[in-house]
Specification:
Elements: E1 4-7, H1 14-44, H2 51-78, E2 84-86, H3 87-120, H4 125-128, H5 131-157, E3 166-167, H6 174-178, H7 186-220, H8 224-252, H9 261-285, H10 288-306
Parallel strand pairs: 1-3
Antiparallel strand pairs: 1-2
């Protein structure tokens, strides 16, 4: 087994690498500020201590971990001529990446269910989405990622790697790692198909069912302004969900022999980097209650400084 793995990165052009470094550094900083800022705002704003914002806090924390799993190494390699990573670090990155990806998959489904209860059964919302129920839903999401990540990482680590050590991607993921193995990877392909297929099927059915009931409820609402607001929120949520599930299905629903490195890298950028940046913008900043809480914090700060 080779001691190190060479990551091809996004480009071999030094000038383009510098541009990409600046772009991804800006995205990373914006994402960290957006997600950490959202966590702090929700924690210090009593009016945001509801189930919806409990899940938004979890999503912001997850996106911070998700992007941090990949981006620091990507930024470091963009400044290097030789983009290498040790085998141990590669499998560590693979594990935590799988952890975050699976958790976000389930968390998006949980958030869709939360919106279904809030819009379709508003009188029972705080009874149905009790603190205990919210914690249980988060626990299920994290349990799913522990099982999923452990299975795929262990299955990949037991293979023999005796060929070239070049991974056609900017981070360690299962499909490009399987392409390096000289062992039979049919079991790994089957595990990916079964577990990823199960996770995507269960969660996307939850999302589609929840939003179907939400849309029916919205259409029955006679208030035009309420319908426009609800449709805007649903469209934004579904946009992020479509990007997330679309890219994950594209990347993992095919056998390793049919992977396309260039297309997979483009999908990875959307899947890993852009969704983490879009989530706080779409799920939080566009929310009227979040904007109101932010203005209240700024108002209190200005009032204290003035006196």
């Amino acid at each position: 087994m080779p001691e190190t793995i060479i990551l091809t990165g996004l480009s071999e052009d030094p000038q383009l690498q510098l541009i990409l470094f600046v772009a991804f550094l800006a995205i990373y900083v914006i994402t960290l500020m957006g997600n950490v800022g959202m966590i702090v705002l929700i924690r210090i704003s009593p009016q945001l201590h509801t189930p919806m914002y409990f899940f938004l806090t979890s999503l912001s924390f997850l996106d911070t971990c998700y992007l941090t799993t990949v981006t620091p190494k990507l930024l470091s390699n963009l400044l290097k001529e030789k983009k290498s990573i040790s085998f141990a670090s590669c499998f560590t990155q693979l594990y935590f990446y799988a952890v975050c990806a699976t958790t976000e998959c389930y968390l998006l489904a949980v958030m869709a269910y939360d919106r279904y209860v809030a819009i379709c059964n508003p009188l029972l919302y705080f009874i149905t989405m009790s603190q205990r129920k919210c914690v249980q839903l988060i626990a299920i999401s994290y349990t799913a990622w522990i099982v999923n990540a452990f299975i795929h990482t262990m299955a990949a680590s037991r293979l023999s790697y005796c060929g070239p050590n070049i991974v056609n991607n900017f981070y360690c993921d299962t499909p490009p790692l399987l392409a390096l193995s000289c062992s039979d990877v049919s079991l790994n392909d089957l595990l990916i198909f079964v577990f990823v297929g199960f996770n995507i099927t269960v969660t996307i059915l939850t999302v589609l069912t929840s939003y179907t009931y939400i849309l029916v409820t919205i259409l029955r609402n006679r208030s035009a302004s309420s319908r426009r607001k609800a449709f805007s929120t649903c469209t934004s949520h579904l946009m992020v969900i479509t990007i997330f599930y679309g890219c994950s299905s594209f990347m993992y629903a095919r056998p390793s022999s049919r992977q396309n490195p260039q297309l997979d890298q483009m999908a990875s950028v959307f899947y890993v980097v852009l969704t983490s940046m879009l989530n706080p913008l779409i799920y939080s900043i566009r929310n009227q209650e979040v904007r109101h809480a932010f203005r209240n914090i700024l108002g209190r700060k200005f009032h204290v400084q003035h006196f």
